[in-house]
Amino acid sequence: MNKKPYSHILHGVAGDQVPPNLDLAPKILNRIQKRKGSAMQLRTRLITATLLVVIVFTVSFFTVPGMAAAIGRWFGYVPGVGLVREGQIRVLAEPVTVTRDGVTVTVDQVVIDSERTALVYSADGIPSGAIVTGIGKVCAYQAALRLPDGSQLLASPNGDQAWASGYRHRFNYAPLPVTINDATLVISCLFETQPGAAPENWEIPLHFILASADVTAFPVIEIATPTPSAATETGPSETLPTTLAETAMPRPAETADGLQSASIKLTLDRAVQMDDGYLIYATLSWRDTPFTLVYVIDASETLHLLDGSGQEMLYELSYDERTGPNVDQRQTTFAIKTAPVQVPGPLTLALDAVVVDLPVDGSFSFDAGSDPKPGQTWTLDQDLPLGEYTLRVHSVSATDSGFSVEMSSKNGILYVSLMDKEHPVIGGGGGGGSGNPGDVFSDGFSYADGLPKGLVTISIGSIGVKSTQPLQVQWTPPAASTQQLPTLPAACLTAQVWNTALAQKPALPAAVSGRVLTSSPLDANNTEKWGLVISNLDGSDRRVIEDGRDGAFSPDGALLAYSTLSNGIAILDLATNHTRMLPGTGNGDINPIWSPDGTQIVFNRGMGIFDLFITNPDGTEMQALTHGGVQEWPVGWLADGRLLYTVPGRENEDTVYAVDVHSGTSQEVAQDSLESISPDSQYTIATEDSFGERWLTYIQRVDGSERRLLADASLWVLSPTWSPDGEWLLAGISAADAGSTIGGLIQPRTCEVIPLPAIQGNILSWVAAK
Amino acid sequence: MDDLQAIRRLKNGDIGGLEILIARYQDKAVRTAYLVTHDEPLAEDVVQDAFVHVYERVRQFDERRAFEPYFLRCVVNAALNAVEKERHSAASLDCDTDSTGLEQLLARASSVEEQVEFAQLKREILAALGELSPRQRAVAVQRYYLEMSEKEMTEALEIAPGTIKWLLNAARARLRTLLGSERSVE
């Protein structure tokens, strides 16, 4: 008689009550877009000037104190603050720092223009134990600007960054009157800390002065927005300077999906010329459409940036107070930060599809009877025409306090908004469809006064559908501003090299062998189920450990130490298949690695703690190696027997330490992001942040010398793992636009690259074949 | 694409990364929330909020942490807050029957036959959970569904160890018999 884990039983208990084929994505994404829009309207009073002529104004790196404000013009883009209006600009006289109980709060920047008072402050040195990382009571955080008369300006943080011991927040308060040059920043408590666990009630005096010539700002280039007809029919105005031509490509009158989206316009608003690319603001307008909202969805698939030669360029979406939907103005502004522009010619922004929120007028009714009960279901099976779309309403089920409706659509309804206009509703929610014809999805809401009785009419206020109308716009950066950055030295692995190797399918050298441990989906058709996989490099002799999440082979390849999903660390004898638990370990103990001689195991203990522990393989002499309370992550072993580990630091700068496992003494050895160390302890693999959350991968000596580029940023190179003989590296490699990661061998000396399609998932360990 | 890649895509401003996380965890998250709220629309609402929270705070997500336990703990907390908020707003309708419910539940649990049909047992368990207080439900869900250790729950719920043990023991006492019976069904 098999026994089921409790979790499986409860999974089934809940599964009986939760609709199948959940697809919350459309509603969540819609909610995000709407929140961004409403937040933006609260935070800013954005004036989106629609200009018929090109305005190019280059901002010198100094301000113009006392100059009359010219609404619609920008002084420039101030790093950390954003776009600043031209006119009288005041700044913080000097950064102000206050330290209490080891926590330092610094007001780094204040910029006051005619629109806002932008304030940036950072907090650092917050004890890890004070920060609420998962769930738990959080203090009531507020950062207000108190004026001399005692009044306070309030705002919500709209730009943030965090690291292990602190964070940086930006606030946009109302603009301070020119007569007020002093204020106090009042911080109730530090962000997301437990009440009383860190210093509270901070008061930091601030003094503002007129901006001087040394304010740094990137110049803003206003891009002309043609009139709608010009944008749609004729492209760029002939009056535009050739360096700033904008083109809106002709579009068919109607999309394949029947939406009249020809009047959705894509235009470019402005570009900020930065050191390493442009920040380009673009707007989707839907003024002449019935839509209540239009927004970009799944940008990696739908939004493309092409350089002057037609090649795809890297970009990243950028969010600030100038972006988001504005329902009143019927437009959605988004911004992209481009990679350095190194090819002359026009940049092309192309959008393959957008999601539109389409108001509809439809309803259906059912008789709930005189005493509706939770769990009761009414089968309707009726088709509801909603304009060009049809919604199939399958059934309505009563929940404890409301109704859940199961629906489907054969022609692309992504989600619906349901309401009951006759009874007060307190909670909405529910799913949306995948857009795949026939997929059943649900939506529902709760009532304030319990389930209504009798005839219930449920109205459909709007539906979300995808418009696949292509939109495209071009802009040519000023020739003089084309950024000519130094060309990176050639890397062993680039996207081109990788694609060539994929096409040529080079054979695996006979001398390269061994067993590889990966963490990967166990079933290609079910990516939710992950586990550990041991296989040869060609994927043969595959062995699955379903309850494993990470692990490592012992140096002799005889044993595998792996962390189970809930029971601690297990040790598997690969010859006998006997598994035993490592005594003294439990749920939350993860990431075991072996000492080079196989006599000790180091692992991370505890979710959210991640201190390093060391033990003998039989569980004896278990002790904490570190006590930092921060996430110490083991890299590997130095020749002198010390263990290298990294601690993530502020702004993605890792600190590397070496710990003597006998004394527990740690010593900082470098500021670097290390991934792995070679078996002979001579070389490390390091990464360096590149553009757009990508990174460069280097090979270097342990001391950082002889640094050489191994892989450029055109590929994701994950978890580079050394071969047992130190001759090869095996990494998970994924092209920028690919959805899957496969293994790739790299020979660091010869730059030979060999794809290993059978190796999938996260590479964990590689051991010589026995 | 694993969670890390999805999170990096999302940090990169690509909302497609969030879609991947949604597709991967929405089902378990809604089930988790439902077990706490016992209100399916509310559970979905909670999960939607939780994903929106992920979106808004993804830049602060530490990539060295596993996403799933982090996220599901957030879901439990959000579900607990949501249901307690609703209970508070409907206080006049919500009699404090915890202790009575406990006794009744213990009596029911003790009377369950081992060979009760699986479906019937699931309904019994659902009812049993329904009679727990929201916080007890949260504890039970964390322990038995998310398989968190008591230490983790202590940290996560910011409750003194003694209190968490009490909550857990109360939930465990109510559920063990039912679950134990079910475990021997097949």
Q: Specify the helix fraction band of chain A.
A: under 10%
- Total strands of chain B: the figure is 0
Roughly what fraction of the amino acids of chain A lie in strands? 35-45%
Radius of gyration of chain B: 18 Å
DSSP summary, beta strand count of chain A: 55
- Counted by DSSP, the helix tally of chain B is 9
Q: What would you say this structure looks like, in words?
A:
The complex is a heterodimer of chains A (770) and B (186). With 770 residues, chain A is mainly β. In chain A, the strands form twelve sheets. In chain A, strands 3, 4, 5, 6, 7, 8, 9, 10, 11 and 12 form a ten-stranded antiparallel β-sheet that branches. In chain A, strands 13, 15, 16, 19, 20 and 21 form a six-stranded antiparallel β-sheet that branches. The longest helix of chain A has 19 residues, at 25-43. The model of chain A is unreliable at 36-71, 227-258 and 480-488 (pLDDT under 50). Chain B is an all-alpha fold and 186 residues long. Chain B is elongated, with a radius of gyration of 18 Å. Chains A and B meet through helix 1, helix 2, strand 9, helix 4 and strand 19 of A and helix 1, helix 2, helix 3, helix 4 and helix 6 of B.
Short description:
The complex is a heterodimer of chains A (770) and B (186). Chain A is built from 5 helices and 55 strands. With 770 residues, chain A is mainly beta.
Write the layout of secondary structure elements.
The complex is a heterodimer of chains A (770) and B (186).
Chain A: H1 6-15, H2 25-43, E1 74-78, E2 82-85, E3 90-92, E4 96-100, E5 103-112, E6 117-124, E7 143-146, E8 152-153, E9 157-163, E10 166-173, E11 182-187, E12 202-210, E13 220-222, H3 228-234, E14 246-248, E15 265-274, E16 277-285, E17 293-295, H4 299-302, E18 303-306, E19 315-318, E20 324-326, E21 331-338, E22 347-351, E23 354-367, E24 377-386, E25 389-398, E26 402-409, E27 413-419, E28 425-427, E29 440-447, E30 455-467, E31 471-475, H5 495-504, E32 515-523, E33 526-536, E34 543-545, E35 548-553, E36 559-564, E37 569-573, E38 579-581, E39 590-594, E40 601-605, E41 611-615, E42 623-624, E43 633-637, E44 643-647, E45 655-659, E46 666-671, E47 673-677, E48 683-689, E49 695-701, E50 708-711, E51 715-722, E52 729-735, E53 742-746, E54 753-760, E55 762-767
Antiparallel strand pairs in A: 1-2, 3-5, 3-12, 4-5, 5-6, 6-10, 7-8, 7-11, 9-10, 11-12, 13-15, 14-31, 15-16, 16-21, 17-23, 18-22, 19-21, 20-21, 22-31, 23-30, 24-25, 25-26, 26-29, 27-30, 28-29, 32-33, 32-55, 33-34, 35-36, 36-37, 37-38, 39-40, 40-41, 41-42, 43-44, 44-45, 45-46, 47-48, 48-49, 49-50, ...
Chain B: H1 3-11, H2 16-37, H3 40-57, H4 67-89, H5 98-111, H6 118-131, H7 134-145, H8 150-157, H9 161-183
Helix pairs in contact in B: 1-2, 2-3, 2-4, 2-7, 3-4, 4-7, 5-9, 6-9, 7-9, 8-9
